[in-house]
Amino acid sequence: MMRKNILIIGGTGLVGKVILRILQSRNPNHNLFVGSRQLGKTNNDLVIDVTNPKTFDCIAQNKIDLIVLCTKDSTNEILQFAIKNKLDYIDITKPTPDLTIAYDLARANKQKINSRIVFSSGWMGGIVGSLVDFIEPDKHKIQETNIFIYYSVKDLAGKSSANFLAENVCKPFIVYKNNKPQKVKHFLNSEKFDFSFGIGKRQVYNLDVPDLFILNQIEKIPTVSVKMTYNSKFITSLMGYFQSLKIFNIMFLRERQLLFGSSGNGDQTIFEVIVKTADTIKRVSLQSSKGQAELTAFSTVLHIEKMLSETLLSGIYFSHQIHSANEVYEALNNYSSINLKIIE
5-124+293-334 and 126-291 share one CATH topology? Predict the structure, then answer.
């Protein structure tokens, strides 16, 4: 494989640093650059501000082949730059509303695209689609997919997810029931779910993740929902009260950011995917003992490695579309800090 120049924009952030570490250890022959707004210490540290395209000149100067975006780019400047300059691009950070805008923008430029544009903003680096494929290869059979997330406030968490919740907790978002979009709000519609890996029964509440859009609009699964619980039952129920009593509505954005922006020193993260057909219910459970950042970064590295293999044609993809589901399952299953269980 040819030596490639890979740029990680947001490479000084929580997930970006882990991507660098994993990518370096698995692919020591590639040349890795870090883009951030601050000037770094080495020649491989580039000053890039996603809001200022004048800072993008260094991308061409350093002959970058692949851009990995791990920071918020609300105006899609980097995406447009990648399309225009025929560079491979993967984005792992977009919440659902931003993802739909970026996807539409890429499709509007479809004729001009002469590189691989990969959207990987689904839950934990966009691996849910691959796990759904793995447990039920025949998409047409799937009637319903539910995702249940166990989120520990003790886990290391980046700013972006906390800020997204702070900004959007009062706004409705869309889940799908028999292909009908239904507006719901975060932390409402609670139900009980029995988690694997010794967590047990928990109240779970609505959460907006891009897989809602991807599984219904792209994969045509008629009914899709995502619900989450915190490791603390008290915090979980508190969020439910805050939403039902409209307390979030009277809080300042800064206060909401503080509320959601808890970042510990690391803890496990768990999610479960339930896939229902007319006659079966299948379930895949995944535990990342090193937490969200490790899992998201490792998933992203799998996508990067696939993009570096010369087998992927130019075009627009969601990350699960670039792999065979078996490859992803095997890679996750063989990773030291990830545990997988399948129940049929």
Answer: no
Q: How far apart are CA 215 and CA 175, in angstroms?
A: 10
pLDDT tens, per residue, the chain with 344 residues? 688 999 999 998 889 999 999 999 999 999 999 999 988 788 889 999 999 999 999 999 999 999 999 999 999 999 999 999 999 999 999 999 999 999 999 999 999 999 999 999 999 999 999 999 999 999 999 999 999 999 887 777 666 677 788 888 899 999 999 999 999 999 999 999 999 999 999 999 999 999 999 999 999 999 999 999 998 888 889 999 999 999 999 999 888 888 877 667 778 999 999 999 999 999 999 999 998 889 999 999 999 999 998 889 999 999 999 999 999 999 999 999 999 999 98
Three-state secondary-structure class, residue 317: strand
Contact criterion met (CB below 8 Å) for 213 and 100? yes
Q: Does domain 5-124+293-334 have CATH number 3.40.50.720?
A: yes
286, 339 in Cβ contact below 8 A? yes
Cα 91 to Cα 227: distance, rounded to the nearest angstrom = 23
Q: Tell me the domain boundaries of the chain.
A: 5-124+293-334, 126-291
Architecture of domain 126-291: 2-Layer Sandwich (3.30)
* CA dist., res. 67 & res. 304, Å (int): 10
Nearest partner of 287 among 270, 299, 272, judged by Cα? 270
Name every residue whose Cβ is closer than 8 Å to that of residue 171 and which is 6 or more positions away in sequence.
185
What is the largest distance, in Å, between two alpha-carbon atoms of the chain? 58
Token reading at 179: 């292909």
Give the helix ranges, DSSP H, for the chain: 14-26, 57-61, 77-84, 96-108, 123-126, 128-135, 159-168, 211-213, 233-244, 247-250, 253-260, 292-308, 325-333
* Overall pTM surpassing 0.85 (yes/no): yes
